Every structure is written in structure tokens, then in C-alpha cells.
């Protein structure tokens, strides 16, 4: 088996409209398609990241909470590469989004910082 690339990352939210606004308006992801799946009472919004990657945003009635702190087994966080971490953090702060202090990766010497989506999903900004 040869894995070619990551096709998509799926995110389940509790408030679809709030999360849709966060990922589209604040993070600037481009909607590709949005469907309502009546049999599941669920929305699915496909979002494009820089014409290359895809995030699927799902809504479901009463999804289980995601254990985060202390960190739980499973997908740890979603990371986006940015040109300048300071500028990205400033932008998020202007939108009233709290961002942890910028840190330095001791192995690559690249800057990174964490914040969360409306449901507390950890998101990392990693400087390229």
C-alpha cells in the first residue's frame, strides 16, 4: 500500500452555524459544497484549504464531548502552516480569539501557537 496524501480531515461540531462562520469567515477556508443529510439530521460542509486540502465540517444532534485536557487518545490537533505566526496571532486576537503564547519548536526552530475552534478542538499555527 502506498499512501499518496491526506485527503481530508473531518470535524464534528455542536453549533453548525457558529463553526461554519469560524472556519469560513475567520479562518478563511473556501466552501466547496454543503449538504443537509435528512436521514442523519446532519449538515456536511466541505471546505478547501489553499486549493489543496479539505476539511469536512459535520453537525450531528447531541454529539459526545471531546476529552481534551488532560489529552486523550486519538487525533491530537489540527495544524495549519502559516507564513508568519505573529501576524496570524494578531489577526485571531482582532477576532477575539484567545491564542496561547507563541513557542519555538526546539528541533526545527520554527514558531508555533495554539488556539481552539468553537468546540474546543485544538488548532495549531506552524510557521513555514
From TrEMBL:
UniProt-listed PROSITE patterns: VOC (PS51819)
Superkingdom in the source lineage: Bacteria
Pfam family, one: Glyoxalase
Keywords of this entry: Metal-binding
Residue ranges occupied by any VOC domain in the UniProt entry: 5-128
Keyword Metal-binding applies: yes
InterPro entries from the UniProt entry: Fosfomycin_Res_Enzymes, Glyas_Bleomycin-R_OHBP_Dase, Glyas_Fos-R_dOase_dom, VOC_core, YwkD-like_dom
Entry keyword annotation includes Nucleus: no
Protein name listed in UniProt: VOC family protein
